[in-house]
Amino acid sequence: MIGHLSIDWVPHVPWPLLAALGGVAMALAAFALWRQAPGVWWRALAVATLLLALANPTLIEEDREVLSDVALLVVDRSPSQIIADRSAQTERAVSGLLERLEDLPGLETRVVDAGADALTGKQEGTQLFAAVRSALANLPRGRVGGLLIVSDGQIHDAPETLDQLGLDAPVHLLLTGSENEGDRRLSVTRAPSFGIVGRSLSLNFRVDDLPDGGGGTVQVTMRQDGGEARVITVPIGREHEAEFELVRRGPSVIELEVEPGPRELTELNNRVAVEVNGVRDRLRVLLVS
Fold first, then answer.
1. How many contiguous H segments (helices) and E segments (strands) does the chain have?
2. 177-181: long-range contacts, CB 8 A cutoff, minimum separation 24
3. Over the stretch 91-132, which tens digit does the pLDDT of each residue have?
């Protein structure tokens, strides 16, 4: 708490008029002194008191409380953060940061968990800066001393510039994971939602070896409704088209699975399933009346 004493002026008349009155009073006082008029000092004191009353000075005593700066520690809790030992890395990083930030005087630390909604499928991708905007909504921008982010870098709502956040503070990113991480990913790029039974259909997919894309070929296993496996050799990093045929009406499940790569963070993205609905091209109806 800091005390502060000041004088505030709230004149009863406009300042130009008050200045004019003061100038006239000074001129009359100077003329009276020149003529050596009796009681000139008492008259001058009375006029000065009147002018001071018109200026209406107010003595203000303020008690000011110094607010601490706020450091926002944003922790990525998205599904990609539980791969390998990233979860343990995150907890160690958060604990270390909190210990260091507590030693800084005049600094308050607020921890914000972000990306947890992706675990429930409510959002697509890691919406980390949505949590940042929510935390900044009730916080004056002038109190924000810095933004610290602990994440694997997979952020899908990052702004192009910090001006979009209205934030004038340093931003630091602590990346989890390791430099030599890699992962093989299988993704379907195009697939039909329905098809005519007995006719040939096709779907497109690709296999990528991250982060460099890889090269060569890899074997992909394709099954329809859990039936006999069909092995396809496809190039890595390029889209491939595979044909299939629906044998019955109704929904059919096409499963694709690629063999593990030389470096794998997780094999969850090595499998994908697509549902295709089979329909007949003609419907024969026998009506008996």
1. 4, 14
2. 177/84, 177/86, 177/89, 177/152, 180/263, 181/84, 181/211, 181/263, 181/265
3. 999 999 999 999 999 899 999 998 766 444 444 567 888 888
Cis peptide before 211 (omega within 30 of 0): yes
- Residues 117 and 77: their CA atoms lie apart, in Å, by 9
Dihedrals phi, psi of 112, to nearest 5 degrees: -120, 120
Report residue 167 as tokens: 């934030």
DSSP 120-143: GTSSSS--HHHHHHHHHHTS-GGG
d(C-alpha 268, C-alpha 263), whole Å:
13
Q: Give me the amino acid identity at 283.
A: L
Note if the pTM is more than 0.70: no
CA dihedral sign of residues 27, 30, 34, 40: positive
Q: Describe the strand order of the beta sheet including 200-210 as a list of residue ranges.
A: 183-190, 200-210, 239-245
- Interaxial angle between packed helices 15-35 and 40-55, expressed in degrees from 0 to 180 and rounded to the nearest 10: 180
Tokens encoding 39: 């009681």
The whole-angstrom separation of Cα 222 and Cα 233 is 11
Cβ atoms of 3 and 62 closer than 8 Å? yes
